Fold Phosphoglycerate mutase family protein.
Amino acid sequence: MTTEVYLVRHGETMFNQLNKVQGWCDSPLTVKGIDDLKRTARALAQVHFDNMYSSDLKRAIDTVHLMKNANTVSQIGKIRKLPEFREVFFGSFEGDNINKTWAQIAKTAGIGYGTNVQKIINQLGLEKFREATKEADPRHLAENKQELDERMKRGIQNLHELTKDEERVLLVSHGDFIKTLTIKYWKKSDGYHDIPFPDNGSVTRGLLHDDGRFEIIDYNRNAESL
């Protein structure tokens, strides 16, 4: 059975609003974040899901419960939390100012693009950006490309096992993780720079096939376009 996966990015959080690095660290959803999610939840209220899943971070868990409570056509039991679908880990930079973090990574990589992360990544490529992030991290805890790739593969394998008898599921995850997953599994992607960062509350759809193959078929749709 092929399983359709609705990947939802969590709503805006306090750290998003305060321009702070937010990977494995957590902060609560804002009022705007909740309001945006309610629009997404209403747009999906008549979509039948066999199950709903979430990253194990609180902002994702709060988001999936908003989706569950608004849905009128699905019978969802206990939400299963999947740590493999956490956000990218930024190590010692967690909770720091985003602009200062990007500037430090650019300095470590030896380029002069300051705080514009898009230009930094376009110059370095995503793999070298991940390596520069790990190198710039004083404790070298940040995930590099290999570590993140391995975690994504484990996540897809685990999801495949869990959803073998499910036709459609919803899974709440995180912006950088969803974007990186899309770069890896979307045929329309030719690299980092043609894909915008997914919006809070947006929906990205994928297909998980019988043989375990995963592909992205639709990216970063907002409530009005669902």
Remarks:
- The helical segments are 14-17, 31-43, 58-70, 98-109, 117-124, 126-136, 145-162, 175-185.
